[in-house]
Design brief:
The protein has about 80 residues and is an alpha+beta fold. Helix content is about 35%, strand content about 20%. Strands 1-2-3 form a three-stranded mixed β-sheet.
Amino acid sequence: MLTVNIHDAKTQLSRLVDLAARGETFIIAKAGKPMVKVVPLEPADTETTRRLGFMAGEIEVPDDFDYMGSDEIAVLFDGNRS
């Protein structure tokens, strides 16, 4: 297993993060003494975070959606009916 000095870990952080993201585990040492073990995270469950299209087929948008309530909105803004 790879052991990296803390100074080297600071200067090579991006490379070490990429290494861990690829599944590699390594140790960061201070003055030669192992301090921490860096392990990759478990892959996220993408099925539970999916949101787009979750209500597909459940709702229907009316054809006049862009104009719904336009009379009421006109009254609120200038007191006139259009």
